[in-house]
Amino acid sequence: MTQMYLEDFKAGQTYSSGQIVVTEEEIIHFANQFDPQPFHLDPEAAKTTFFRGLAASGWHTAAMTMKLLVGGEMAPANGIIGAGFESLNWPRPVRPGDTLRVFSEVLEVRPSKSRPTQGMIKVRSRTLNQNEEVVQESVGNLVVMTRQTSTIS
């Protein structure tokens, strides 16, 4: 995949990812390590919770989104380097058997005033399930290197 520099990005560009299928085992495994709550750990206990069934942790959804982004069409030089989120929302739960994919749109491109070898892009990413329902939406800022970076020794 061709690495992209700040000069390659323009507001309005869109990128997509491949897809992954979420399993019950993965949801429980992640929850055991990082978010051990009944609605993430136990399918039976989860039926009586807010989610009315087993649901992936939002942080698990974020991690799966990151995996999809890294393997997707958008390939900034030096990797996807986050500088923070302006927003991060989980409007609906991810369930076992869901198939996720990500669509991203460049909202803004800003060269750095103090660092000529880098800039920032603001990106909206939407993680969708197989029914085209948004399960995660974020607006974040990414640090992206300029072509000048590759000419500096």
From TrEMBL:
Name the UniProt record assigns to this protein: Acyl dehydratase
CDD domains named in the record: YdeM
Domain of life: Bacteria
UniProt-listed PANTHER family: BETA-METHYLMALYL-COA DEHYDRATASE, MONOAMINE OXIDASE-RELATED
Provenance organism: Sulfitobacter guttiformis
InterPro entries: HotDog_dom_sf, MaoC-like_dom, MCH/BMMD
Lineage: Bacteria, Pseudomonadati, Pseudomonadota, Alphaproteobacteria, Rhodobacterales
Family matches, as Gene3D superfamilies: Hotdog Thioesterase
Record-annotated MaoC-like domain positions: 12-113
